Structure formats: C-alpha cells, structure tokens
Amino acid sequence: MKTVMYGAGxxxxxxxxxxxxxxxxxxxxxxxxxxxxxTINRDKTYPQExxxxxxxxxxxxNIRAVDGKDTSSVxxxxxxxxxxxxxxxxxxxxxxxxxxxxxxxxxWDQDPDxxxxxxxxxxLMDADKFLRERIYKTLPARHKETMSQSLGxxxxxxxxxxxxxxxxxxxxxxxxxxxxxxxFLPVDRNAFKGPIPDYDKIVPYSPFSFYLERKLYIHNMAxxxxxxxxxxxxxxxxxxxxxxxxxxxxxxxAMIESAMxxxxxxxxxxxxxxxxxxxxxxxxxxxxxxxTVERVGREPLRKLKPDxxxxxxxxxxxxxxxxxxxxxxAVACALYNVTKDSASELLAETSQISTQEPCGKYIMGFYExxxxxxxxxxxxxxxxxxxxxEIRGPVV
Length: 396
Ligand SMILES: NC(=O)C1=CN([C@@H]2O[C@H](COP(=O)(O)OP(=O)(O)OC[C@H]3O[C@@H](n4cnc5c(N)ncnc54)[C@H](O)[C@@H]3O)[C@@H](O)[C@H]2O)C=CC1
Ligand SMILES: O=P(O)(O)OC[C@H]1O[C@](O)(CO)[C@@H](O)[C@@H]1O
Description:
Catalytic activity: D-mannitol 1-phosphate + NAD(+) = beta-D-fructose 6-phosphate + NADH + H(+)
Number of helices: 19
CATH superfamily of the largest domain: NAD(P)-binding Rossmann-like Domain
CATH class of the largest domain: Alpha Beta
Domain Mannitol dehydrogenase N-terminal: 1-198
Shape: globular
Bound molecules: 1,4-dihydronicotinamide adenine dinucleotide, 6-O-phosphono-beta-D-fructofuranose
Helix content: 55-70%
Structural class: alpha/beta
Enzyme class: oxidoreductase
Domain Mannitol dehydrogenase C-terminal: 211-347
CATH architecture of the largest domain: 3-Layer(aba) Sandwich
Keywords: NAD, Oxidoreductase
C-alpha cells in the first residue's frame, strides 16, 4: 500500500506523511527541495519531535522521496498509488495540477475504474471545488467523465500546529520536525471513492463543513485574536500572550461566541465545543512550539475579509442570534493592527461592515478605546460586560 505525499514541508513531514506511515502505507514524498528529497532517500527515516508536556521523538519509517521537478517519475508514482495527499500551500496547489493529471491519465489509461482518493491538506475553504474545477479543465477529454466516478477529492481539517523550523530547532538535521502532540485528522467522509484509511487518528465526519467552520471560527479566529492582542501588549510568542490573564479572558469570550453559533447551527452539544476550547487554550500555551504572534497574526487585512475567521464568525453569530461582543473586539484589534486612522472606511471596504450596523458601532467603540488606551485590557473587559448587559437586558 503506497501513499504519494505531495509536499514534504512542515505539515507533509510533521503531520500527514507521518500519520499515513503509521497507518501502514509506504509514504513517497514529492518535493522540490533537493536537500529534503536527498536526505529522505539517504536516511529512509526522520525524527518527528513531539514538543510539550509529553515530549518524545518518533522516527518515521517506510518512506522515500521523489524530486518534484522530475514530473515523469512523479506521475508514474501517482498512477500506481493507493492514496494521494497534498500539503504544498495554496499558491502551489494550482501549479501541481498538470502533474496530478498526467498521473491520473496514466492510471486511467490502464484502468478507468482504478479509483484514487486525494486528501487535500491545505488551509483552503472549498478546496475540493478548487481542485475539481482545475483538474477537470486539465484532464484529456477521454477522462473527464472518469473523474466523477474514480477520483475522490477529500477535504481535511489540519488542526495540528507545526511551527517554522529554525536552525536551532533542526539541530543539524534538515528533516527534523517539531510538532505539538495533537494529531487528529478529521476528513470528509462523503468524499471518499475508495476505502477510508483505517486508523483511529483519521476521523471521518459528515457534514464536513462542521469541522471546517470549527477550525476557522474557533481555532484560527482565537489564534489570530491572541496574536493581535499579544502584538499590542508587546509579546513575541503566542504562549506569552495567552498566559496574560486579560488576553485569555477576551479570547475565551470570543471562542465561546463562535462555539454557541456552531453548536446551534450543527446541533452539536455546546459542552463538546467547550472541551475543544479548553484543549486549544492549553495548546496555545505550549512554549516549546516557539510560535510567534508575528506568524499567527500575519496579514491582518486578509484576516478582516468578510468570509475569513473574524468577520465570518461575527456574521455567523448574528445570523444565529448570538451577540458577537467579544468578536467585535477581535475585529477592532485586527483593524487597530492595520491602521490607526480611517478605520471606518477600512471596515466598510474590507469587511463590508457599516458603522450604522449594531456590530459596526460596537467595533468602532472598541477601536476608539484601543486608540486612547491600547494596553488597558481591564477597561475593555468592563466594556464587554456593559455591552452584554445593555443589549441583553435584565436576566431573571
Ligand atoms: N504549519 C501549520 O501549522 C499548518 C499549515 N497548514 C497548511 O498546510 C499547507 C502546507 O503548509 P506547511 O507545511 O506549513 O508549508 P511548508 O512550506 O513547510 O511546506 C510546503 C512544501 O511544499 C514544497 N513545494 C513547493 N512547491 C512544490 C512543488 N511544485 N512540488 C512539490 N513540492 C513543492 C516546499 O518545498 C515545502 O517543502 C498550507 O496550505 C498551510 O496553510 C494547515 C494547518 C497548519
Ligand atoms: O495561514 P494564515 O491564514 O495566516 O493563518 C494562520 C493560521 O493557520 C495555521 O498556521 C494553521 O491552521 C494556524 O496555526 C494559524 O492560526
């Protein structure tokens, strides 16, 4: 049984390739990084270092690598694979479509019923649609029909955090990869055409949008919010930021709003989501990951778009009748990280939120407070409490 793992980077080596090797596959990594490819083929193993409380080193076995520039060899591997996975980054995904199509063509010229599932391990909403359109366009006419019955485009939710590896962390081994302990991979149950890999860490689920929204609106939203608050306070690392008691309270408040929304939308017990929140807050505290507020809070403008983690969560709450008070503050923090003036224009243009809307008013109120006293988080907390009680009215 063979998996082709496209991308031997942080997630390819640190998560998916390792997981599939442990599931029992031979893992053939494809990468354009010569050092990584040559070292995998020389050592036939690499150390995966699990950092944190239960730290240990796991040696990943049953692996080899193919040079991504040798497209003929890559397509031969795809033609004879039992499973395919990608984790190359969204901007590269499009570029590898021609090679994937070459592999599928070789495969289906032999046997059009030879199904192949492709696990898409990228941070991309509607990743299946994205690949389906491009693969369909690129495949030769004789295989366009085959695709619908023989190719499973499987969305996944990558929850494991793998930091950028510094030279210090590599300790002289270009393959060494530091990862957190969390290693579950939720996958879209309905998308498989062949058997679902049988391993307890691979969690098939339907409707899969539940996991995608949980990841984006709870994990990614809270992570970004922690980073923005940390930047304002002058912290370098995510763990420093989340250990600040005021930041933790603010972030947890926003996570609970998102969780109430998701619980209502997907009819999932709130307690299940609360356990996920508690676990994430612990995971953000992992100082051995050395994850920076700079990386997690990068490109705040992109993170302010209507369907991204902040405004997406806020709009989802409004839709579900949940008050997005902490989420409004999260949006205000992102705005504050982008601009110290003309915030209302930016909010309208980038996030499509008008200052006439209730949430637009809350956001601008928080933004003005941040401008006048950026590090006064106790006052912000007081503002959230007051806002809640004003909007909610008396409680019996
Ligand atoms: N690092 C993390 O904590 C998480 C990352 N992700 C997502 O996983 C995906 C991969 O991210 P990382 O592993 O962090 O990035 P990375 O940059 O470490 O890995 C990407 C790998 O793809 C290789 N590559 C580039 N072009 C290629 C080509 N044409 N053919 C073959 N290989 C090629 C690169 O050499 C690199 O080794 C991204 O979509 C990211 O958003 C998702 C969740 C967590
Ligand atoms: O890559 P983006 O969109 O800047 O988002 C960063 C987020 O993505 C991850 O790298 C993977 O989900 C998280 O660790 C982080 O919250």
